[in-house]
Design brief:
heterodimer; A: about 190 residues; mainly alpha; Rna Polymerase Sigma Factor, Chain: A; Arc Repressor Mutant, subunit A; 2 domains; 9 helices; elongated; B: mainly alpha; 3 domains
Chain lengths: ~190, ~190
């Protein structure tokens, strides 16, 4: 049976430093899957993932048990990714500015008669196209899409990470999905 | 019912529509191929995204992070063993080299060893001098400490019994505080 994150954290704080290996084993893949798709560079993603673990370890004493450990860790990761974008001087993390999305409401749209993505492409091809298209989605939306559909977080968990209302998160995930769909259509 | 909005499509796909609304949507989908295709298309994209492969993770990644967090400390004994091993290997290599290259080389080797011996001899002379100076310094310090104690005893004789008692208690409290502070500093260092 897997040991609960909070028990592991308590063990580490009580002096069992090596228990942190369990945290690394548990979160290295989800973190890399998120960071890798946010920065688009494998080596950089590995460095940033390592930095997330180091930051997490050094601030473990600040972790409050009423929160979920995974969401707390992803909050650290998200802040690190935002810092990375800021250092690159790309103002792509402002949640208020997305071309084509002026409010939190997804655009009301009657489905058209254009050819559906799935008719022309099989699942594997769509996966490849998603990988190469994700970087065209503004980071603030991309982040939410990755958490929801790649890391498979619940909306509640995402809302906890971003400290935003669930409704806002849902609408932004819908926006991200619609934008991805449009971009995929452009590629076809 | 009218055709579905984007929000309704996603809410339907995520099972977020309440029962009467859900039934109405399903009824509409059975009649409207456009909405039905829109649902299928979006569902396919979500399926593809949710089955994206993991990004390659080096097998030693967790070890790398742990080494960064807890760098391996090499003990003094380890350093000494490595040093003596290195010196031994160097001497053996020199010996082998000169043995292969003949008598003249052997003479050079003897001179080399002599130089090392001289260096050791000089070092031992320096060590003896250092020891002598340290002993002298220690003797001086002992004498100074003796004078200080004598002075304190003389001063204590000038005080009455109550004052001496107060002085002893104060000294005790001060020593205890000092001890606690030292322990605190040591435990902080251990944690660091």
């Amino acid at each position: 049976m897997q040991l609960d994150d909070k028990i592991i954290v308590q063990n580490i704080l009580n002096g069992d430093e090596k228990a942190f290996e369990m945290i690394i084993q548990r979160y290295q893949r989800p973190l890399l899957n998120y960071i890798g798709r946010m920065v688009g560079d494998h080596e950089l993603a590995l460095d940033l993932t390592q930095e997330v673990f180091i930051k997490t370890y050094s601030s473990l004493h600040l972790f409050q048990a009423q929160y979920k450990f995974s969401t707390w860790m992803f909050k650290i990761a998200s802040n690190l990714v935002i810092d990375f974008w800021r250092k690159k001087k790309i103002d792509s993390f402002s949640l208020d500015q997305h071309p084509g999305f002026e409010s939190d409401k997804p655009p009301i749209q009657i489905p058209g008669f254009d050819q559906p993505v799935g008719k022309k492409y099989e699942l594997q091809e769509i996966r490849e196209k998603i990988e190469s298209t994700l970087n065209k989605i503004p980071p603030a939306l991309r982040e939410l899409f990755i958490w929801r559909h790649i890391n498979e977080f619940s909306y509640e968990e995402i809302a906890e990470i971003k400290e935003m209302p669930i409704g806002t998160i849902k609408n932004r995930v819908y926006q991200a999905k619609e934008l991805l769909r449009k971009l995929l259509k452009e590629k076809i | 019912m009218n055709c579905l909005s984007v929000e309704e499509i996603y809410r339907y796909l995520e099972n977020e529509l309440q029962e009467p609304k859900r039934k109405a949507v399903e009824k509409h989908l059975s009649k409207c191929s456009s909405c039905s295709n829109a649902i299928k298309e979006r569902n396919l994209i979500i399926q593809a995204a949710e089955s994206l492969p993991d990004i390659d993770l080096p097998p030693d990644f967790s070890r790398r992070v742990l080494n960064q967090l807890f760098p391996q400390k090499i003990s003094l004994r380890g350093w000494l063993a490595a040093l003596s091993g290195g010196i031994g290997a160097a001497l053996l290599s020199f010996t082998a080299y000169f043995m292969i290259n003949g008598y003249d080389s052997a003479a050079t080797l003897i001179n080399f060893y002599r130089a090392i011996l001289d260096a050791f001899r000089n070092l031992s002379v320096m060590a003896a001098k250092f020891l002598k100076t340290t002993t002298l310094l220690f003797k001086v310090l002992v004498k100074i400490a003796g004078y200080i104690i004598k002075g304190l005893v003389g001063a204590a004789n000038l005080l009455n019994t109550e004052m001496q008692l107060v002085l002893i208690v104060l000294t005790f409290v001060f020593s205890m505080l000092l001890l606690i502070k030292v322990r605190h500093l040591m435990s902080n260092r251990e944690k660091a």
